[in-house]
Amino acid sequence: QVQLVESGGALVQPGGSLRLACAASGSIRTITVMGWYRQAPGKQRDLVATITRGDSTNYADSVKGRFTISRDNAKNTVYLQMNSLKPEDTAVYYCNAIGQVSYWGQGTQVTVSS
User: Fold this and answer.
1) Residue 59 and residue 35: Cα distance in Å, rounded?
2) Across the strands, what pairs with 7?
3) Residue 2: pLDDT over 90
4) Which of 25, 42, 78, 101 has the fewest Cβ atoms surrounding its Cβ within 10 A?
5) How confident is the model at residue 95 (pLDDT cuts 50, 70, 90)?
6) For position 79, what pLDDT does the model report?
7) Cβ neighbours of residue 108 under 8 Å, at least 6 residues apart?
8) Cα(44)–Cα(56) distance, rounded to whole angstroms?
9) Which pairing describes strands 11-12 and 67-72: parallel, antiparallel, or unpaired?
10) In 3D, which of 104, 40, 34 has the Cα closest to residue 69?
């Protein structure tokens, strides 16, 4: 089993920045990929960014150049640095880990509004 706890969601003005964190615990050695997804009201959950055990990254086109995913292996934590935030980035952001099965965190709310 893998447990994921997200933090860092907040209300931020357009153009602002925010950093989300996802702390993993449990059977973390089984994890091969970690990532961030987001779900806006009335919409499906979409990929934001992923990072592999070998530090290969992948981003949704809508966030390329603005968001950066990174990991701190010593802290078993994955981060999502979000810059130049737009109102359309408003969503619940979920952390995901792929191991023997797919694991999800509880989500953290990001609201971009003036």
Assistant:
1) 10
2) 21
3) yes
4) 42
5) very high
6) 98
7) 6, 7, 8, 9, 20, 92, 93
8) 25
9) unpaired
10) 34
pLDDT at position 100 is 87
Q: How far apart are CA 79 and CA 20, in angstroms?
A: 6
pLDDT of residue 73: 87
Among 55, 42, 48, smallest CA distance to 94 is for 48
Give the whole-angstrom CA distance, residue 26 versus residue 14: 36
Query: Is 5 within 8 Å of 107 (Cβ atoms)?
Result: no
* Residues comprising the chain, all counted: 114
Q: For residue 35, which of 17, 20, 47, 44 has the smallest C-alpha distance?
A: 47
Q: CA 15 to CA 53: how far, in whole Å?
A: 31
Contact call for residues 50 and 103 (beta carbons, < 8 A) = no
Using CA atoms, how far apart are residues 87 and 109, in angstroms rounded to an integer? 13
